[in-house]
């Protein structure tokens, strides 16, 4: 009787571990996707507003070839 209970607990623990591992993988994937989107958004903002932002900060108009 006691060994049956132990097997049931071990099986439940294993299912919980597998579920946790799966959720951790999903979270890591979502985090990577979020970081990629954040970087893409920042790049698009800089490409579309970069010269205006640089002009506002420095008072100079930056060309596309200017490297900072």
UniProtKB/TrEMBL annotation:
This is Uncharacterized protein. It comes from the Eukaryota. Residues 6-47 form a coiled coil. Keywords: Coiled coil.
